[in-house]
Amino acid sequence: MSILTDFEDRVSRAVEGGFARVFRSPVQPAELARKLGKEMDRSKALGVGKVYAPTMYSVLLSTQDDSALGGFADTLSGELETYLIGYARERNYTLTARPVVRFLIDPELRLGRFDVIGELLSPEEIAAELGEDVIDEAKQEPLAPAARGAAASSPGVPAAVASSVPPAPVSPTSVFDATGPAASPLEPSAPKPASITIRGVDGDVVLAGDRMVVGRLKTCDICLGDANASREHAAFEREGTGWAIQDLGSTNGTLLNGAQLGRERLRDGDVVAVGITEIVYHEARG
């Protein structure tokens, strides 16, 4: 049985057929699950030997669809969260916390239309986003296989992770007891942080903290399997509201849009060459 079929069966049993009567719009639980899975694939972040999946998912619904959802919001959120855990496990993605699904109203959406936004947040950031202060440790459970393996050797997420995984140690098996409000007015979309795309590698890497080192060493924030890159080749350094690229005395130098650099402020779409690896910079968007 596929995880999607299992999800549909569990939703059906949970609401005893009431969902079919309530949701007569084109928005159906299975479609929500498929879109959430696609968002997990789209927003995943690459780490050293791991792929980290988003942990916070905002489902935007029209006012009419949100009203139709009514009292089923908490039940559906919980089932969708369980589905995402299975989806991550199938793809060997690492979850640093139990995924949280919440429903928000977007007045601009028409009946039957919806959107999904996935973010890789720490449990503390999820708590702040949901207006909660306490993590319920009583509901801890294993997450993705890779996360379970990491728990035995390290109490936190490795520092050398090129993603938005929070710098503070976070237990890979910490589970957040939060499904969010059934519905609330749509707040302004959270700003998208600056990120980079490593050409030839699927998925973007979020720039976090104040400095991220690129090189061949496994201890680098962004570790490259490029023999032409130096051990610690260059560094992305926060500069005001943006980022700069700094060469760290590398053997072959660092190129910005084809020209050698020492240190330069980056602009959206700039291409940084480290060894033979090309890295495209994406400016943060508010």
Per-chain topology:
Elements: H1 3-15, H2 18-22, H3 29-43, E1 45-46, E2 51-52, E3 56-61, H4 63-69, H5 73-90, E4 100-105, E5 114-119, H6 123-130, H7 145-153, E6 195-198, E7 204-206, E8 211-215, E9 222-223, E10 234-239, E11 242-247, E12 254-256, E13 259-260, E14 263-265, E15 271-274, E16 277-282
Parallel strand pairs: 3-4, 8-9
Antiparallel strand pairs: 1-2, 3-5, 6-7, 6-16, 8-10, 10-11, 11-14, 12-13, 12-15, 15-16
Helix pairs in contact: 1-3, 1-5, 3-5
How would you describe what is shown here?
With 286 residues, the protein is α+β, with helices and mostly antiparallel strands. It is 26% helix and 23% strand. The protein is built from 7 helices and 16 strands. It has helices at residues 3-15, 18-22, 29-43, 63-69, 73-90, 123-130, 145-153; strands spanning 45-46, 51-52, 56-61, 100-105, 114-119, 195-198, 204-206, 211-215, 222-223, 234-239, 242-247, 254-256, 259-260, 263-265, 271-274, 277-282. A 6-stranded antiparallel β-sheet has the order 7-6-16-15-12-13, with no helix packed on it. It has a 5-stranded mixed β-sheet with strand order 9-8-10-11-14, with no helix packed on it. β6 and β7 form a beta hairpin. It starts with a helix and ends with a strand.
